[in-house]
Amino acid sequence: RGRFTIGQASIEIEGDIYKTSTVDILVTEAVSSSLSPNNPDTIVSDDLELIAEVSKRSPYLNEPISVVYKLLFSPKINVTNLSEVDAPDFKNFWSQNIKIPRLEINRTSHNGKSYNYVTWKKMLLYPQKAGDIDIDPMTLDVTIDVPTNRRDFFGNVIYSQTSNKISSEKVKIITKPLPEKNKPEEFNGAVGDFKIFAKSNKSELSSKESFQVELKITGSGNLKLFSIPDLVVPSSLEMYDPEFNENVKVGLSGMNGSISNTYTIVPQFQGKYPIPSTQFVYFNPREKKYIKILSEELVVNILDGPTSSITANTNDSSNSTKNILNSKGQFNFIELETNLFEITKKQSIIDQYFQYVLISIFLFLLFSVLSLKLILFKKSKSIDNNKIADKLAVKSLENAKKYLNEKDLFYETLEKCIRGFLITKFDFKNTDLVTESINKKLSKIGVDKNTTDDLINILNTCQYFKFTPNSEFDTTNDYNKSVEIIMNLQNFKL
């Protein structure tokens, strides 16, 4: 600071000398400059904001919360482009993005000011850890048109374009653990509000038929995050692994819909068989307590078939009848008098010989009868398995046909159908369902090579879809080919 003098400057041109005048300069303190209200930095700080709206900041473990990201901007500026630079990974949350069909501009009020806003992203979250969980900021690259002080020939305001990065604040979620007090042993993590149902497609049938029992859980809550309890049936009923079905809609309020297991059951003996109620336990965050519910008890009447030694009318699948002597038949009186006579050595040898012969004949006949029964049983079971496999295949193909326009569900259902058919009809194991084993076993029973190759190609297609879902797949052609393959295989048996 201070007063400074700039001295004279001189120059000689063709013998003449020219001089400048001295200049005095006064240097004062710095003066704060006022930024234009249309300066981009001012726009970013005052008229552009990215906020994260959280539905609940202190949920229970596995209770749904939503996070909605909104870009707020002043009505006097125009947003021309948006792109996501950095997004949170939602660690320690089960997360799902809720699709936004298109970006729309709406009006709102925030901190006493009027804004336009665009909803950029909607997320549904289920906390998977108790305690403090941080949600990192989201960053957007925003291109905006800022008004200037200039106008065009027609008097319209001229805008200048600028690009800025803007971030939301970090969000802290405090997750409450589920209460340990009165927590049932059967609880497997279900949180929400649910109901459970059990339904059989038949109440009366023959022992050579099969029936299906569907165990379904409906309601709202973390439907994708827990398993359905197992169905328990009497041991005289042969139960196969269930087919899982899911019909769940995901929105900002959480998951709603149903999940179910459908069991295929084959009776072995005649009689009435009760299928006991299935218990399901869940935690209701609104009522802050654990709730136990039961499905309906079912009774299935098997009209014919062999009689089981196991009591049918019991809920215990392991109980069987036992023969117990009554007290009168446990002991008899001991003979007090004897009537002995001498046996000659020759007679003893003859008697022993006849005993050996009789025992040998008896054992031979017993072995023959048992062998014959075993052969007949295996033959009968093979016939039953063939019928069951054919029926299950037809039903599974009908299910697959429903999903012709939903490739992921179609190929998943089709693969289960073909694998289940091979396991039930031809006694394959899951580990045997590879190309070499399929070729070997089917060729052994006379299946032609073209049918076997088509079968393997369909199974490979189902596998390829899992890894390349965006590739072109013809579901209609694959369905028709699968029907043809199964119809051909129905003519063969082990």
Secondary-structure element string: EEEEHEEEEEEEEEEEEEEEEEEEEHHHHH
CATH top-level class of the largest domain? Mainly Beta
Helix content: 25-40%
Radius of gyration: 41 Å
Mean pLDDT: 83
What is the name of the CATH architecture of the largest domain?
A: Sandwich
Major β-sheet, in short? 5 strands, antiparallel
Tally the helices: what do you get? 6
Cα shape: elongated
- Structural class per helix/strand content? alpha+beta
What fold name goes in the CATH topology slot of the largest domain?
A: Immunoglobulin-like
How would you portray this structure in words?
26% of the residues lie in helices and 35% in strands. By secondary structure, the chain is an alpha+beta fold. Strands 5, 6, 8, 9 and 10 form a five-stranded antiparallel beta sheet that branches. Strands 15, 17, 18, 19 and 20 form a five-stranded antiparallel beta sheet that branches. Residues 311-333 have low confidence and may be disordered.
Quick take:
By secondary structure, this protein is α+β, with helices and mostly antiparallel strands. It folds into three domains: 136 residues, Immunoglobulin-like (Sandwich); 111 residues, Immunoglobulin-like (Sandwich), CATH 2.60.40.740; 112 residues. The chain contains six helices and 24 strands.
